[in-house]
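Q: I have 313 residues here and want to know how they pack in 3D. Can you give me a structure?
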Amino acid sequence: MKTLKNKNNPLWILCSIVLFFLLLSCLYEPLLSKVLTIRVEKTIVNGEVKYPPFTPLEVLPFGTDIIGFTIFAKIIQGFKYTFFIGLLLSIAQILSSLFINMLTLHKLGSKILLPLFSYFDKLFTLIPKPFLLLLLIAPYSDALFFNTDNVQPSANLKFVMIQLFILFLVGIPNLVKLYHSELNFLFKQDFAFASQTLGSSKFRMISYSFKPQLTELTLNLFFKILTQNLSLFIYLAYFQLYLGGSLVTQLDASTTYTATISNEWSGLIGQNINRLASTPWTVLIPLAFYGAFILLLNGIKRSLTGGMQNQSI
């Protein structure tokens, strides 16, 4: 009993870390935004007045971007968007692929749906997903480009829905193929033949007989697709296709600064990537948090799958 509890300790610790940061992020607008330093327009360093950007040594703990917004406040604010967008998108893809595979159990579904998704899966392997997303999303981004004098929240929501819908569609074919391959393998097992001989339907076998195998597969695929989606967010942000849209600020007569509206983490990385040499902290600090979040997710996955294997033993 003690060993089982000890094995669950890493899972609780990792989940607690994620939930703690999520709680902080959700409390940002109603509470923390009134306490934290959000923007530093100027400060005195070594007896001289300086203007942004400020290094982490000049403005604790993580410095500011080129217009003075603190990286610390942006990271706290943006985590909830990174977490919930990635989570909901991955759950929708997993549930939809499961539903589609249930439909393929019928003759009509196996003749129409399965070849269709297999075709798109092969097509998407020929075209790298980042470039495919760039081709599909960029035209909508140009149509919904606004500046500080023309911010339209409804347009931002519309752009988010377009981005998520395209990301959703691009990820579905491969998931459908993976689930179909696993179901084919399970239906060929001896216990599946025995169940069918005794009169069990395919739907009942999936619901009961295959439940342990499908649960473990779904858990692994969920974390895999979540990590892939988080990686795709960064690819989009590199091309300034930020989740939620872009906000263009005119710094001077010849210089503009394109920033993410939602402050989602991948957007924080993408909006400063061209200034990596001059203000490296604006890229490396959000990137470190992004990498740590992915490592936490992988740790949670290993703890969950390890616990399931121990239970089965």
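Q: Anything worth noting?
A: The domain at 71-312 is CATH 1.10.3720.10 (MetI-like fold). The chain has a mean pLDDT of 83.
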